Amino acid sequence: MTLLTPPLEITAEEYRTRRERLCGLLAERSLDAIVVYGPVRVAYLSGFFFSATERPVALLLTAEGEVHLLLPRLELSHVQQQCPELNNIEVYEEYPGGGSGRHPMQVLADLMRRLGLAGRRIGADLDGYEHRWGYRGPALSAVLGQPVQADVALVDDLRSVKSEAEVALMREACRWGDHAHRVMQQMIREGADELAVSHAASQQATRDLLADLGKRYVPKAREGMPANAMFIRGANTAHPHGLHQAGAVTAGDVLVTGAYGVIGGYESELERTMLVGDPDPRFRQYFEAMLAAQQVGFDALRPGRTCAEVESEVQRFIRDELDMANLIRHHTGHAFGLEGHEHPFLDLDDHTVIQPGMVFSIEPGLYVPQLGGFRHSDTLVVTAQGSERLSLYSRALDDLLIPV
Question: Cross-referenced SUPFAM superfamilies, in alphabetical order (predicted)?
């Protein structure tokens, strides 16, 4: 007898639970409804993943738990396919009106009036749809003719603590991020082109993922691949977000890599500092310093502390123990999940209290002009006692050398 394995995605039951938790926040703030525009927030609350364009999509949730979706007609069959349990759908023909003379925000305002929400206390993640792809439109408060309490934290604070199901998806994403990096490392050699290797490794790792997971893998985007790897090289790595450069890998190049998986819409993060050839004492000095600083971050990440306290501990170590404060270019890390960067941040000015279930990158970097960047990044989930590393790729220098 063959046992059926579930698809790697969040269940409809968990989406309902998320909306119930949001309703609890509405009650705490005495709000009668909330309008959510952000595409990732809409997906988080409904399971409807879509390609965001100039055509507004909005999720309306009442304090009683009634959910409505505002959609362009071209998305109607799509939402019915993904979320058959969501039946309250308000469709507009096209943006900016498709000949109707009604802007989509007017359609939304009319819906809210029909639901008896005119003049009630309304919250929103944003006071109107995001201005993307040429979109122009009025604020929600303007079409309603009343104030709106806009606060992205209403939804994003819920997103910051991951459920067991979310962590499981991110753990699987880390497995494939590790695999993509391994494939890429095997392809890197002296004379190779960084762009060609990055794309080839991502394609091969994606083929491996699809073959292994089969129908359990459920894509949640129109673009990109579920397993990805890339690197930049040489002195260009001294820029924390250096762009790709044309040309060949050369002996002595410092490499800063990035690899990630995407499973059920959830991402992982893995970055490594590598070297083409044998390390000299100067490279070893900075590599070992970076590795020690990252370990301080690992040890500092635990529940009950604030993000600022973690960052302060890492910066203090780099300043006082390493005497390398001048090489810092960014904070120690960030949360992530459905997006590559999410709130909160391991930063001196972020005083969010760390809780079990939060997922962070730990990636303190040291950037040496004319030599290169030194940065490992790993995915960690906060546990009741401390944290657990989900990205398991080797951090050791001997495992990160490209032979010449």
Answer: Creatinase/aminopeptidase (SSF55920), Creatinase/prolidase N-terminal domain (SSF53092)
